[in-house]
Amino acid sequence: MSEDIAPEIVLALEIDDPALADRLAALLGDIAGLRLAGPGEKAAAAIVSRDPRIMPDDIALTQRELDVLALMAEGGSNKMIARQLNISVHTVKFHVGSLLDKLDATGRTDAVAHAARRGVIEL
Amino acid sequence: MSEDIAPEIVLALEIDDPALADRLAALLGDIAGLRLAGPGEKAAAAIVSRDPRIMPDDIALTQRELDVLALMAEGGSNKMIARQLNISVHTVKFHVGSLLDKLDATGRTDAVAHAARRGVIEL
DNA sequence: CACTTTCCTGGCCATCCGGCCAGTTTCACA
DNA sequence: TGTGAAACTGGCCGGATGGCCAGGAAAGTG
Question: How many angstroms separate the CA atoms of A48 and A66, rounded?
Fold first, then answer.
């Protein structure tokens, strides 16, 4: 038993919804063997939002937009995405434009970041 | 009173490491107001692995690179980043180039995605 | 003192990106 | 049938991006 007592498990709380975050913090705040991570602290695991952060209907993404978005998140250029999906670069730009619009992003990098934050895509 | 008590928070436990998963399950198993999700059950949040996917030393990012990276993740253009950091666009490009190199990315979008995956930045 | 690292700046240029215009097809739904 | 949404394609063009070259200044280390 050199493995002396299990060290505390440090949990990062990464929840956007303040209400939910508060409730979780309260519930988890004083459990022996478990501690919430401070800002910037390294954690063994994180609690992340899994609620289908509902996307307002008017900005629901179409299947094709999701296809393009996924490839964007992989760092694909318009040209590469076009090849992957067997469509023209123009069409890719068209979908990218819609994505920037719907995700309220300034560019493709911003679009991917927003989508990831909203849980639309998983990095 | 009318605010009838907060409903249970359902947490999904998505940890690969069996040991860590077991310990967490044990710790969280009987907390009032909180319940672990069954298989397939929808959860309000999930506990995911956040193991410090260590960054090899040779790709350690400098402070300035982290500054630029953070602003990139916010969708900032080279010009905007330059203004924010009070440096020239050329210098921003220089740091972006280093980032693409170190993160093995094909472009700024890819760089941000990689950095997020590695836990270098938080989206 | 040399030496290295980090940070900084400039020019040049091919390519990519995103916004604008315009159009066609297909399919579901009223 | 017509009306709309989605997907697709094209041209055009200003600006952004990224790679290449070349340097300089400051701080820390041997």
Answer: 22
